[in-house]
UniProtKB/TrEMBL annotation:
It comes from Asticcacaulis endophyticus. This is DNA 3'-5' helicase. It is an enzyme of class 5 (isomerase). The lineage of its organism: Bacteria, Pseudomonadati, Pseudomonadota, Alphaproteobacteria, Caulobacterales. Residues 1-486 form the UvrD-like helicase ATP-binding domain. It holds the Pfam family PDDEXK_1.
């Protein structure tokens, strides 16, 4: 039996440890299929995934497998069942074919969802048991930020009576201690890391209670102080410990010493004595300066040889006391500040909870916390578990290494009865209940989201002990064979982590050597390029924090590496370098390349830019920070100008942007020598100057529209506004900035829409919203496209590619290292405030421990990057002016080459000009393990590296806000020509219970639904439908039913309701140009459309009474309406004869339109 089949055994508890590419998802899907095959009910199975995308993929795979079983012949199905370890009896074959239908028919569908999705569903089912409002809502990021902003504002005005502990004096002390800048930084951290801080605070409070001490005492103990003495109390304790008579004698003795330094120290001691004697505040720093340097280190000597021995002895006795005091004072200061921060955060969190409760809302962390609380309440948990569709019998956890402690607590609660035998479902059915988890601690890279790989291993031990106690067995198979990567890729991965036991420990938390095995046996290729080095002293881009300014001379290492990569990728595509896909070789295309970076820095931006410069199709950034994208900034700048037309800088930026697209020279010509504002100058430009006409027209429109529009309305109209060439503003953005701009524009519109959901905001309010609430956009970059994907390693989890490139810059520094409040999951909580001198050992140890964890996660991150490659892996990098800290990925790769089989590694000279596009005739030595694939004849799609914008991005859209367009609804074409009294009202319009258009609407609805029914069912359905309309009386229902049935039962109208007809067909389009040269657009909805090979029949129902006998006698707006329909349909069906008619329910009768009448009314529409 294969390890995969052991793991998928539905009768056993299983915890699977799986290498990258070893088929974790397939194993999980096979287990679900085998559970269903063994008789498990779909509603009793819960699959917990890490992301929604993973849940969708898993469900898709499962349905594909079950759907395949449903239609397979016996022999093929038998092979499939045998392959996964199942019996191939006739009974099993029959059952396998029914599983797909059973899964589809399961109420609510299969439970394959994220932990947050499961928690939300559970809480919505048991809101009262959880103490929640039944109609609670889930806050999105924007709403959560808005509530947090309110909480922060409220926090600053909080009074003592309103604080959690009745005292908010700590807030004022913090403002004085931290100063304004650091205090604001702390508040930002409260908001941005609220969930993480909350978890740390909860752990701290829990540990303090376990020890039976207060939070303040716990904080003092955590910095190494046995008592919670304040810094002032420690100072008083030190002063009380000194013998002031001895201090005076020492001061006098040092004052008469020959050495100047001794005399100065004597004066310092004398000043201390006088301060203490006169009960004045003692400047303790005077004493500290005698013994410690500015860095807080003990001086090598604090007296000269001329000092008397007795004085030397006293100073030697006093020195360690002062050193101890400084250490304790620093620690107490940190503990005191941290306690104030703790109290302030608890006040902030309480305010935030109150705001959420008042709005009946939960954030994502609340889903986990509330579910954990619900399932751990002994009086509720059994009831809740019992009511979960009769009980959960099988729970499967995917990506278990990324599951947090709180999430594991929920899973443990759900599976608690699996090993105790108390579940009601188990009692009744005697079914085997199982828990399954699959993960890879080597791929745990989400520590910043609370993932702890050590908890995965601890949980495995927990279930192992639980199984043993219950007389059951927990299987722990290992999946080591990779179906993804070639042997050379896996061999290189093993070599990278072979050099040091610490490397293995970072991956597996053991000293065991990491080993992989390949299922595929082709030859792969690993390349190590030489690092790109700085050229001169000005080449200082070594931290990757900025993109080059446009006027900077020379190329930085990051830019030069990006240029080489882009050129080489283009060359490889053009040469037809081979890749194997589904066991077949073909020429590669851009979509076969995946470039992975550690962070989105200058290197990341340069790679995307250089690929575009080379004409290589590229997907753009995998995640966009909305506030930093140029398109968003352009729109924000436009709104600033709309609020203040005298803002010359904003207008200049707009004119250079895709909004106006003026050149630098145009802007210079406009600005140079002007005497007034830039806007005033633009207004004075001649109207025949084509460069400025569109810009002036757009700005005039903006100034007119912005004050009177809501944010979303204004933006939607702006983006759909056309220029003189017919391009919309959206299209201009896309043409200049690329397809990724589409996501930015859509997210900006979404932000405006969300803002209106919170409050009715105008452009100015939306501008403020943009300044503080711009979010990140995650752009999905799945396989299957034909564009190079450039993303962070974190974003690549679960992806793969034939060719993976890992460009490596100087070592990464986490932004979390700059946090003011240091936290961890174990209750560690410190404010990182630098003491006046010296350091706090507890904080140093905390930072060192955190740095070690970060280093281990960085090594796991490199593992994830390496294992994305199927066939080819390229490692390259650049160095900056300053060397990085910690282990370098490039260094690890270089060391690994020294441990690879000598006969399989070669040094290949590659031409700098031909292979990397450099203006240099020299050569670069590239280390290669394995061999590159051959070249193949590339098809046209692969060779074409210059990718135009997709057609749908530049296609015209009807109804856009073209200032010259006339936009009308054909159903109201005559409204401006007719008075209310001229329109034909329904005879029943004024009857009790029936509004002006109510009768007509009901008749239209019945004509929509009844024709699809059998003739003998129509009248009964009509009577039933009208009986549900409470505003009708019996006479009205009978009259409407009779009118509708008279039409449907008339053979003259059979074609109108035949299978070739369609109801409620929407139309929109341009029918011509009016006398002023303006395009005329029409939109409407046809009641009934009949289409045959050479004939199109458009019919509209009318319920007016009395009905006219001829179309010419119908209301003028009806005639124009039908003419508009005919004009649009003639464009859609140019080879068919298009005719129109009105079907009157009074009679009933049909009044067709002649071609002459259509022509006359159509001309009127274009006036």
């Amino acid at each position: 039996m294969t390890p995969q089949n052991v793991a998928a055994d539905p009768s056993a508890h299983v915890f699977v440890t799986a290498n990258a590419g070893s088929g974790k998802t397939s194993t999980l899907v096979n287990r679900v299929a085998r559970l269903l095959l063994r008789g498990a009910r779909p509603e009793h199975i819960l699959c917990v995934t890490y992301t929604k995308a993973a849940a969708a993929e898993m469900q898709g795979r499962l349905f594909a497998q079950l759907g395949g079983w449903a239609v397979m012949v016996d022999d093929e199905l038998s092979q499939q069942l045998a392959k996964i370890g199942e019996d191939i009896s006739a009974e099993n074959l029959t059952r396998a074919r029914t599983l797909f239908a059973g899964a589809l028919e399961t109420p609510g569908g299969l439970k394959i969802q994220t932990i947050h999705g499961f928690c939300e569903k559970l809480l919505r089912r048991f809101p009262l048991e959880a103490g929640l409002s039944p109609s609670f809502k889930i806050l999105d990021d924007l709403e959560a930020k808005a509530l947090m902003a309110q909480a922060l504002e409220r926090l600053l005005t909080l009074t003592d009576a309103e604080g959690v502990h009745g005292d908010i004096s700590g807030r004022d002390r913090l403002i004085r201690t931290l100063r304004v800048a650091n205090f604001e930084k702390l508040l930002r951290q409260f908001s941005m890391q609220h969930e993480d801080i909350l978890e740390s605070v909860a752990a701290l409070i829990g540990q303090a209670r376990d020890k039976g001490i207060s939070e303040k005492e716990y904080l003092y103990q955590s910095v190494g102080l046995p008592e919670a003495l304040s810094p002032d109390e420690l100072t008083a304790q030190l002063l009380g410990r000194l013998n002031w008579g001895d201090i005076k004698s020492l001061a006098q003795s040092l004052s008469i010493s020959k050495g100047k330094t001794d005399q100065e120290r004597g004066a310092a001691f004398l000043e201390l004595h006088e301060q203490y004697l006169n009960q004045k505040p003692v400047d303790i720093s005077t004493l500290i300066n005698v013994f410690l340097t500015a860095k807080g280190e003990l001086r090598k000597t604090y007296y000269t040889k001329d000092v008397a021995q007795t004085d030397k002895d006293y100073l030697d006795w006093l020195a360690p006391i002062v050193v101890e005091y400084v250490a304790q004072h620093n620690a107490a200061r940190i503990a005191e500040i941290t306690y104030d921060v703790l109290m302030l955060f608890m006040d902030f969190s309480a305010i935030y909870r109150t705001l959420k409760r008042r709005s009946g809302a939960l954030d994502f962390q609340d889903l986990i916390v509330q579910t954990r609380r619900l399932l751990h309440q002994t009086d509720m948990s059994s009831w809740v578990l019992y009511k979960l569709d009769g009980g959960l019998e099988h729970i499967l956890v995917d990506e278990a290494q990324d599951t947090s402690e709180d999430q594991w607590a929920i899973v443990k609660a759900l599976t608690s009865e699996f090993f105790a035998g108390e579940g009601a479902s188990l009692k009744l059915t005697k079914a085997v209940r199982t828990v399954f988890a699959v993960g890879d601690e080597k791929q745990s890279i989400y520590g910043f989201q609370g993932a702890r790989p050590d908890k995965f291993l601890e949980t495995r031990q927990f279930y192992d002990m639980a199984a043993v106690s219950a007389g059951q067995v927990l299987k722990i198979p290992e999946l080591v064979h990779s179906f993804r990567s070639l042997p050379q890729v896996l061999g290189f991965v093993d070599a990278v982590y072979d050099g040091d036991p610490e490397l293995s420990y970072a991956l597996t938390f053991t000293s065991n050597v990491v080993r992989h095995a390949a299922v595929r046996n082709d030859i792969g290729c690993i390349e190590l390029w030489p690092q790109v080095m700085p050229i001169d002293a000005d080449d200082t881009e070594d931290d990757g924090t900025e993109v080059d300014p446009v006027d900077k001379t020379g190329a930085t290492p990051a830019k030069r590496l990006a240029q080489q990569l882009a050129f080489h990728i283009k060359s490889e595509i053009a040469s037809g370098r081979g890749v194997m896909v589904k066991d077949k070789w073909r020429a590669m295309h851009a979509g076969d390349v995946l470039i992975l970076v550690r962070k989105r820095d200058a290197l990341f931006e340069n790679i995307i830019r250089e690929l575009k410069q080379q004409g290589v199709p590229v997907s753009g950034a995998d995640r966009l920070k909305l506030s930093e994208h140029i398109a968003f900034q352009d729109i924000r700048t436009l709104m600033r100008f709309a609020m203040q037309s005298g803002d010359d800088l904003s207008l200049a930026c707009i004119l250079r942007s895709p909004l106006c697209d003026l050149s630098e020279q145009d802007l210079y010509d406009l600005s140079q020598g002007r005497s007034g504002s830039l806007w005033g100058t633009l207004l004075q430009k001649p109207s025949d100057d084509g460069r400025f006409d569109d810009a002036r027209s757009l700005m005039q429109w903006v100034l007119a529209e912005a004050p009177r529009r809501a944010g979303f309305d204004f933006l939607a109209r702006l983006l759909n506004r056309r220029d003189r060439n017919g391009l919309t503003i959206r299209q201009r953005f896309l043409t200049r900035l690329g397809p990724e701009c589409e996501d930015v524009l859509d997210e900006t519109l979404a932000l405006a829409l969300k803002g209106e959901g919170i409050d009715d905001i105008g452009v100015e309010a939306f501008l403020n919203l943009c300044e503080f609430n711009a979010s990140d956009i995650k752009r999905e970059q799945e396989e299957g496209g034909e564009r190079v994907r450039v993303m962070t390693v974190h974003g690549s989890k679960g992806l793969e590619a034939p060719w993976v490139i890992i460009p490596i810059g100087p070592n990464f520094k986490s932004s979390r290292n700059d946090d003011l409040l240091l936290i961890d999951d174990d209750g560690g909580l410190f404010v990182d405030v630098k003491p006046e001198r010296g350091k706090v050992d507890a904080i140093t140890r905390f930072k060192d421990a955190k740095a070690e964890k970060d280093e281990q996660e960085a090594l796991r991150l490199f593992y994830v990057a390496l294992t994305r490659a199927r066939d080819r892996l390229t490692v390259c990098g650049y160095q900056g002016k300053r060397a990085g800290s910690g282990r370098s990925w490039y260094g690890l790769a270089a060391d690994a080459f020294s441990r690879l089989p000598v006969g399989e590694v070669s040094a290949v000279d590659m031409a700098l000009r031909a292979d990397f596009g450099l203006d240099d005739p020299g050569w670069a030595q590239v280390m290669i393990y394995g061999a590159r694939a051959g070249t193949y004849v590339a098809d046209e799609k692969s060779v074409r590296v210059k990718s135009p914008l997709p057609a749908f991005l530049t296609a015209g859209v009807y109804g856009e806000d073209d200032p010259s367009a006339v936009w009308r609804a054909v159903s109201q074409m005559g409204d401006d020509d007719r008075t209310e009294t001229e329109r034909s009202p329904s005879p029943l319009a004024m009857q009790k219970g029936l509004g002006r258009y109510r009768r007509g609407n009901l008749i239209h609805k019945l004509f929509e639904i009844l024709p699809d029914l059998a003739p003998d069912q129509r009248e009964a359905v009509a009577i039933k439908y009208l009986a549900k309309q409470p505003d009708l009386d019996d006479d009205q229902r009978a009259e409407i039913t009779g009118a509708v049935m008279a039409v449907l039962n008339d053979d003259r109208f059979a074609e109108a309701f035949s299978p070739k007809s369609r109801p409620e067909v929407a139309l929109a389009g341009q029918i011509g140009v009016n006398g002023r040269g303006e395009p005329v657009y029409l939109s409407g909805r046809i009641d009934r459309l009949v289409v045959s090979d050479d004939h199109v029949w458009v019919i509209d129902y009318k319920s007016n009474r009395p009905a006219p006998d001829r179309a010419e006698d119908a209301a003028i707006d009806y005639q124009r309406q039908m003419a508009g329909y005919v004009a649009l349909l003639r464009q859609i069906y140019p080879k068919a004869k298009v005719e129109a008619a009105l079907l009157w329910t009074d009679g009933p009768k049909l009044t067709p339109f002649s071609d002459d009448l259509i022509t006359v009314r159509l001309a009127e529409l274009s006036r």
